[in-house]
Design goal:
With 217 residues, the protein is an alpha+beta fold. It contains 9 helices and 4 strands; from the N terminus they run βαβαββααααααα. It has 2 domains: 95 residues, Glutaredoxin (3-Layer(aba) Sandwich); 104 residues, Up-down Bundle (Glutathione S-transferase Yfyf (Class Pi), Chain A, domain 2). The structure holds glutathione.
Length: 217
């Protein structure tokens, strides 16, 4: 049995925040890629996480199911690093705020759009899905204004807040929500996509998915 933190995830899901943070922080993890959605395709996973959602981090007795919290945890597990902003440091409050904002305020409407317009098209709720897409675009205003004259969200350096918000922008591109994303946010995303740690994280997740597909034949 490995003593490494175990990260259960699905490739390119919100778990990418955690895989990416582990790569940036140099924390070794045991990455376990599941088929999506695990609730139906890996029902034994419900014994570990009754929500059926990914990601799930298991680190000894610790169990975590929130992608942004896991990213922060991995960046600070062995003490504060430059990937986080420490209490007392400038932008500590903003660091907390953008890290929570990423999923609670930005990704939330994205997922409702995905559900109604991509995964459950037959339910007749596409109009509502498109309204959530608009809502997502409107909600980008805060990040957009914050990045005016800044390269990164907090403390003049790349932090977990950029991982958490950046993932929402990466998701927007992959699910057809890019039309309402401004050019300045697209440039920010392009800068993030150049990071070797993100590229390694995506390659690890893709390799896990490929292995699953090969096993399924
Ligand atoms: N707030 C949680 C949300 C987790 C979540 O809903 N994950 C999605 C994947 S991105 C999922 O597992 N969906 C499958 C399901 O709900 O069955 C987080 O940030 O990790």
């Amino acid at each position: 049995m490995s003593d490494l933190p175990i990260l259960y995830t699905c490739a390119r899901s919100r778990g990418l925040r955690a895989t990416w943070a582990a790569e940036e922080a140099g924390v070794e993890i045991d990455l376990r890629v599941l088929p999506f959605p695990p609730r139906y395709l890996a029902p034994e996973y419900l014994a570990l996480n009754p929500l059926g959602t990914v990601p799930l981090l298991v680190d000894g007795e610790t169990r975590m199911t929130e992608s942004c919290a896991i990213a922060h945890y991995l960046a600070t597990r062995d003490g504060y690093t430059a990937l986080s902003v420490a209490p007392g440091e400038r932008d500590y409050g903003e660091y907390c705020d953008y890290t929570y904002h990423a999923d609670a305020t930005i990704t939330f409407p994205q997922t409702v759009y995905m559900r109604f317009c991509l995964f459950e098209k037959d339910k007749g709720l596409q109009e509502a899905g498109h309204a959530y897409a608009k809502w997502f675009h409107k909600r980008l205003v805060k990040v957009e204004q914050r990045l005016e004259g800044r390269e990164f969200l907090c403390a003049d350096r790349f932090t977990v807040a950029d991982i958490c918000v950046g993932y929402a922008l990466i998701l927007a591109q992959s699910v057809g929500l890019d039309e309402g994303v401004s050019d300045s946010l697209k440039s920010y995303r392009a800068r993030l996509l150049e990071r070797p740690a993100l590229q390694r994280a995506m390659a690890r997740e893709d390799a896990g998915l490929k292995a699953l597909e090969n096993k399924a034949g």
